[in-house]
Amino acid sequence: MKTTIEKFAGDTEGVSYELTVFRFKGTSKTAPSAYIQAALHAGELPGVVAIHALMPKLRAAEAEGRILGDITIVPAANPVGRAQYVFGELEGRFHLGTRTNFNRDFPLLDRPDKAALPPPPRNATVDVHLKRLLVGLSVGHDIVLDLHCDDEGVPYLYVPAQLWPAMQDCAAAMGVEAVILWDGESGAAFEEAAIHPWLQLPAEKAPLEGRVVTTVEFRGLADVYDRYARTDAEGIYRLLATRGVIGDAKAARPRKFSGVAAPIDRVELISMPRAGAILFHVEPGRSVRKGARLATIVHTPGEPDGSIDILAPQAGYVLTRVSKRSGRAGDDIIKLIGEARSARPKAGALED
Fold it and tell me: CA-based diameter of the chain, in Å?
């Protein structure tokens, strides 16, 4: 294994950042390569600890000559966001200087080649340089995993619709409970930047059956536990073995995906009709009927009519809910995968 430190300057004098990159060299010229990163949203740590638990397994495989394809790993992909604290609270989702989501506005290349990266814009800010660096590290890999987490939720994947159902083996290997299939544009999120160059090539030159591109949502923000880290590391390892990056016949044993898979237009974003305290009546992973009580908003405490119930607009599966227990009118607090298309469908990306 080779460890390198990528350094890049900040937006003010005397400020710079470092990005640690681990690289394993494969022994086979025909095996697929893999790129894995975590904490692009810097406060989302389940993927970070999963990579920490994965590394000993990869070092053991390397020592035994079982790393067949090249593997590049960035365990903490956003040192810029990791340094952003406001009154003691980490703000790792948006760059404070530009107000831009760290998982938006990545460069979209016309071919899977680092040489296709355009020069940075004049006076580009540090978040732009970070995104160019991450695209340069990841481009050309057959497998790209971007590890995130939700507020509170089950483990699930975002997958480009073009890669499904070919990626069912990956969902099964990772043991996720749901898959959301997206199409179109997603604000140039990292996942879109990873699949976009392959979609520009003729199918005979870059068959999509060999591609794995996904945003992995490892449960919720607070689910940073050793048992989950080990479970998630085993899932990533199984995926690498299943797709031939690592030689391990036992780990590559076929599994069946039995979770929920649905296009993104079936996701219902359940919002608050009034500001107030949130009383949830369902947990992620539950199936509900149409009209089921999902939450109660206490908007005028103490009054006879001081609360209002939120009901399921259709039958479906509760994917996530927010971790906070208060909000404003219009705030989305639950993602429900409906059995039918939503009356208010979204495409590409569900949230800012």
Answer: 71
Whether the predicted model's global pTM rises above the 0.85 cut? yes
Query: Residue 332: CB partners within 8 Å, gap ≥ 6?
Result: 269, 270, 271, 322, 351
Residue 266: C-alpha distances to residues 262, 321, 335, 340 (Å): 7, 16, 10, 6
Q: Which domain holds residue 237?
A: 2-258
46-69 core/surface letters (b: 16 or more CB in 10 A; e: else): bbbbbbebbeebbeebbeeebbbb
Displacement of CA 100 from its chain's centroid (Å):
17
User: What's the CATH code of the domain at 332?
Assistant: 2.40.50.100
What is the number of other CB atoms lying within 10 angstroms of the CB of residue 18? 10
Q: What is the DSSP string of 105-116?
A: -----SSS-GGG
Determine the pLDDT at residue 203.
Answer: 83
In this structure, the answer to whether residues 231 and 271 fall within a common structural domain is no
Q: What is the model's pLDDT at position 62? A: 98
CA distances from 233 to 175, 224, 226 (A): 11, 13, 10
Q: What's residue 207's pLDDT?
A: 86
* pLDDT per residue as tens digits for the range 298-311: 999 999 999 999 99
Q: What pLDDT was estimated at residue 349?
A: 83
For residue 23, which phi and psi values (nearest 5 degrees)? -130, 130
Strand partners, 335: 269, 320
What the block records as the tokens of 335 is 């993602």
**Within-domain flag for 346:** no
Q: Domain total for the chain? A: 2
Residues of the chain with pLDDT under 70: none
Helix axes 46-63 and 226-242, enclosed angle (nearest 10): 50
CA dihedral (129, 132, 133, 137) in degrees, to 10, reads 180
